[in-house]
């Protein structure tokens, strides 16, 4: 049996790592790994392959940046050639980025069985490119692996009931596998930080960074927070570009900037933070397991279980709501969040088991 996996953007890498690992145990399975090249900087891509022991991609399509359609279309053209050449029995896509969308459409049109890891999540915000990707990928998938019950409910409402498996969260597999290794990271010393005495910020969603007034408002609010706690900001290339384009560079002065960090440094940084402020869905999930309170800088979440178990609060872009949530977490005594069901480090094993059974 040949499985062809498609990855391309940073959050894909920690999701494919435990799958690639679990597939190694099956000698009768060939795993062919395609990197679309969506993320191409050393510290957005190669570093993750090295740290997480992901096999070197068999092919890198080198697509890189572009508009939504240009990027997706270029990936599709190249993926079609690879899939025709490789003739996989199953194509596997993870998450909700453009690389997953491209992989799903091409596999489907070539009548190749399609599996989607992290299926069923819905923000119900159609302004997000990821929401469109999720809906299309799920509609095309034959095997759908979900991380939380809300995803199964969403799929059911869309009429998708066959091939759906609630398996837990592969991103948490990687986190649990990496905690010990991350301990030896020297990132706190390198950034001159004291454990539990700083906040971590990540922000890159188009909805937060692509409009000047929104980005400026958020940076002003963050400057206010930084009067009470040091904020460390590994800045995403998209955000950096937009800040420069809008002439807002000075508004970053109150934040401690770093380049995007590798997986292990970032894990160590997050584990020791007092709070996390983020617009990333993946980090919302990781912070829940790390038991570090998470203020989610978005109007909604496709991962409601993180809120239900008390791991994160969703505050949007509103200054008052953000300040009040931060204040509660810095001064209050919020109870420890619970652990979502099946976020136990064994999701990849369950997924590979189902794939082998069903392919
Ligand atoms: C993509 C995903 C998003 C995910 C995020 C994580 C989609 C629709 N979005 O968004 O779901 O949360 O990745 O990072 O697929 N860039 C670089 N170097 C890189 C990568 C990107 O400079 O290694 C620049 C590009 O030039 C581009 C910008 O960052 O202008 C955005 O990259 P892109 O791949 O379009 O989307 P992300 O915002 O990273």
Commentary on this structure:
- With 359 residues, the protein is of the alpha/beta class.
- It has two domains: 2-168 and 343-358, 3-Layer(aba) Sandwich (Rossmann fold), CATH 3.40.50.2000; 179-330, Glycogen Phosphorylase B (Rossmann fold), CATH 3.40.50.
- It is 47% helix and 15% strand.
- It is built from 16 helices and 13 strands.
- The protein has helices spanning 10-24, 46-52, 68-86, 98-109, 129-140, 149-157, 170-183, 187-190, 206-209, 212-225, 237-245, 263-271, 281-290, 304-308, 319-331, 347-358, and strands at residues 2-7, 30-35, 59-60, 90-94, 113-117, 143-146, 164-166, 198-202, 230-234, 256-258, 275-278, 294-296, 312-314.
- A seven-stranded parallel beta sheet has the order 3-2-1-4-5-6-7, with helices on both faces. A six-stranded parallel beta sheet has the order 10-9-8-11-12-13, sandwiched between helices.
- Strand 12 (294-296), helix 14 and strand 13 (312-314) form a beta-alpha-beta unit.
- Helix 1 packs across helix 7 (170-183), helix 1 (10-24) packs across helix 16 and helix 7 crosses helix 12.
- The radius of gyration is 20 Å and the shape is globular.
- The termini are close together.
- The structure holds uridine-diphosphate-N-acetylglucosamine.
- The site of uridine-diphosphate-N-acetylglucosamine has 20 residues, from helix 1, helix 5 and helix 11.
């Amino acid at each position: 049996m040949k499985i062809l996996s498609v990855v391309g953007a940073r959050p894909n890498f920690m999701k494919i790592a435990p799958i690639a690992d679990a597939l190694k145990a099956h000698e009768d399975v060939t795993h062919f790994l395609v990197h679309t090249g969506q993320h191409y900087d050393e510290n957005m891509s190669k570093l993750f392959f090295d740290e997480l022991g992901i096999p070197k991609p068999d092919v890198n399509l080198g697509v890189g940046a572009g508009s939504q359609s240009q990027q997706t279309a270029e990936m599709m053209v190249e993926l079609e050639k690879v899939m025709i050449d490789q003739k996989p029995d199953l194509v596997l896509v993870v998450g909700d980025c453009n690389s997953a969308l491209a992989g799903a459409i091409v596999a489907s049109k070539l009548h190749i069985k399609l599996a989607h890891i992290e299926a069923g999540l819905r923000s119900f915000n159609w302004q997000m490119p990821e929401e469109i990707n999720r809906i299309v990928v799920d509609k095309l998938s034959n095997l759908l692996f979900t991380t939380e019950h809300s995803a199964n409910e969403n799929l059911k409402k869309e009429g998708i009931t066959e091939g759906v498996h609630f398996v837990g969260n592969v991103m948490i597999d990687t986190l649990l596998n990496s905690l010990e290794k991350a301990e030896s990271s020297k990132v706190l010393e390198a950034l001159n930080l004291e454990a539990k005495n700083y906040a971590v910020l990540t922000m890159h969603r188009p909805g937060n960074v692509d409009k000047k007034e929104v980005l400026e408002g958020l940076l002003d609010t963050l400057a206010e927070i930084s009067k009470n706690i040091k904020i460390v900001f590994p800045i995403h290339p998209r955000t950096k570009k937009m800040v420069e384009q809008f002439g807002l560079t000075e508004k970053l002065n109150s934040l401690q900037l770093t380049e995007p960090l590798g997986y292990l440094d970032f894990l160590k940084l997050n584990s020791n933070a007092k709070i996390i402020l983020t617009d990333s869905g993946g980090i919302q999930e990781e912070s829940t397991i790390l038991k570090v309170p998470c203020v989610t800088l978005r109007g909604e979440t496709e991962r409601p279980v993180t809120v239900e178990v008390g791991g994160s609060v969703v505050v949007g872009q509103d200054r008052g709501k953000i300040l009040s949530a931060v204040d509660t977490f810095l001064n209050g005594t919020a109870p420890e969040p619970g652990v979502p069901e099946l976020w136990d480090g064994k999701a990849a094993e369950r997924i590979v088991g189902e794939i082998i059974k069903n392919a």
